[in-house]
Amino acid sequence: MDQKGGPGRRLVLILGSAVFALVTAGVCNNAWAKSDRDRVIVDMAARNVAVPGNPRRVVTLGSAPVINSFVFAMGKGGTIINGLPAAKQFNRSDCCRFQTIFAPQLDTQPSLEGGDWSLKSETLLLLRPEVVLTATRKHISLLEKLGIPAVYIALDARGERNREVMTFLGKVYDREYESNRYIEYFDSVMHRVRDRTRGIPEKEKPRVLYCNFKVMTQSSLTADWWIEAAGGISLGKEGPLKEGMRSFSAEHVLAWNPDVWIVSVPDEVDMVYRDSRFKNVAAVKNKKVFSVPVGSIRWSHPTSEQPLGVLWAAKLFYPERFKDLNIKAEMEYFYLTFFRYRLSGKEIKEMLTGRKQ
């Protein structure tokens, strides 16, 4: 057995120092310096960033599950080298279980965002990404100091932002054919829905409420967009807005009297029906309480799957106008074409119901 300070101990110290030196040298000497493969692109914050053509080692930070959904839609899920966030409030089995089905490596790769959403810089350095995709501006300055190429992706509640994000990722991955094909599909879905809902008087449109029933909040303002894009009226817009979230009371719901009530998780459907306060609400009386589908993320949130969310909602609101719409066939086409993943019938059912089969 080696004594303290013996040869074995010295060897460990030497090896440890060597590893540390290699990592720090990569930063100090800019191991991510521009190479022959690099191109300069302008990110969504108007910054010039040198990135390699068709990057193979990509990290996603700040709204990582949302960014992942767009990377999946580029057919590039296999390039993501970090895991999902580790924050306690992030329930991957609830909203993002399919992320590790579309990109299995996410289940074993290290998380780079801790329980308080802080960035694990040392782990990030060891992963040695070619580029970082982030929707959080505060990450940019830190990543610049570390010498890691980082591009900013601007997300917001408008579904039309999908077109801009995919156009940008087409430049990042040098795959503009894939991004253009997605945009063509997005536009065709919006055109189909607009054609069939055009001219419907406001008073005949369904009044729709989307919320997390347990806490009576609408955590995603994107819900306003897809409800209205599908031809409905979003009642959540009338709720008070605070820190990017709308909250409301039982009294609000009773006053609004929604025709359709969509909740964030399937268990909440039964909770709504069992709550005697809402027994006279139109959506409850007419059995029109539903849970939002969940793919790489809930379709009610910013995601590349928004076209599917609009189609699903449109058929929910206007079953006669969309009686020929086969949402399962649309899902099969979408995920195979863009995510390059062939869904099984069981997986389609899981997505639509939000429940593991």
Question: Would you give an account of this structure?
Answer:
This protein has 357 residues and is an alpha/beta fold. It has two domains: 29-174, Rossmann fold, CATH 3.40.50; 204-353, Nitrogenase molybdenum iron protein domain (Rossmann fold, 3-Layer(aba) Sandwich), CATH 3.40.50.1980. The chain is built from 15 helices and twelve strands. The chain has helices at residues 7-28, 64-73, 92-95, 99-102, 121-127, 137-146, 161-172, 176-197, 222-229, 250-256, 267-274, 282-285, 306-317, 327-339, 345-353, and strands at 38-42, 48-52, 58-61, 131-134, 150-152, 207-211, 217-218, 233-234, 241-242, 245-247, 260-263, 289-291. It has a four-stranded parallel sheet with strand order 8-6-11-12, with helices on both faces. A three-stranded parallel sheet has the order 3-4-5, with helices on both faces. Strand 1 (38-42) and strand 2 (48-52) form a beta hairpin. The longest helix has 22 residues, at 7-28. The protein is globular, with a radius of gyration of 23 Å. The chain starts with 6 loop residues before the first helix and ends with a helix.
Quickly give the structural class: alpha/beta
Helix fraction bin: 40-55%
CATH fold assignment of the largest domain = Rossmann fold
Question: What's the main sheet like?
Answer: 4 strands, parallel
How many structurally independent domains?
Answer: 2
Tell me the total number of β-strands.
12
CATH architecture of the largest domain: 3-Layer(aba) Sandwich
Shape: globular
The span between the termini is: 54 Å
**Number of separate helices:** 15
If strands are numbered along the chain, what order do they take across the biggest sheet?
8-6-11-12
Q: Summarize model confidence as the mean pLDDT.
A: 87
Q: How many whole angstroms does the radius of gyration measure?
A: 23 Å
CATH superfamily of the largest domain: Nitrogenase molybdenum iron protein domain
> Percent of residues in beta strands?
5-15%
